[in-house]
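Notebook entry, structure prediction.
Reason for the run: the old model in the group folder had no record of what sequence produced it. Starting over properly, with the input documented here first.
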Amino acid sequence: MFLSLLARLLLVAGLGTLGGGPPHASRAAQAEVRGMVYWQAQRPLRWGDFRARTCPVQTRAGERALGACVATGIAVLPCADARGRGTFQVASYLDPSHSWVRDSASFANRLTLAHEQVHFDINELYARQIRALVASYYRAGRYPFTAELHGRIAELLVAKTTCNNRFDAEVAADSIGGSVTRWQATVQQQLLDLAAYGAEASTCR
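New structure, fully documented this time:
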């Protein structure tokens, strides 16, 4: 199960700083995403990342139907490169304070943790798609702080939620238990296809 946090999209549509330059991410904006667990290829999730004391979501079946819930988000922060050109930094993160597990010591939770990792990987996948989109504007020399780019990023965030819901639905309907493995393989291949826009890459040149 996943809890999609509102993306922290700090978009200045059509507005610049004094002098017409691009806005920079303020210290307050940068601090807003501190304390999160950021997606890293060599750092998989562990149950210590799930610190919420109660389940943060409600389902029709009730809390007892859930074994865990991961709260993920994508931060999209305006910034400028060394030449003052505007762009965005895009980060894929998990919020430990809203991520919950029923019983981290349960043997069955090995599969549950793998399930939650797929949700986090999906989050990074869409962060890479956003980075690729932002990079296309940067390479073309297009001004990024517009309603057009804002809308395209918003569409990707909606698609991310749809993808997560489809994953949960397929797993719930799977009586054999192979859905998680299939999704792992599919998402990992898609991450590989977008390796140039990985979490270590900054869109601020």
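Summary: The chain has one domain: 2-197.
The old model has been moved to the deprecated folder.
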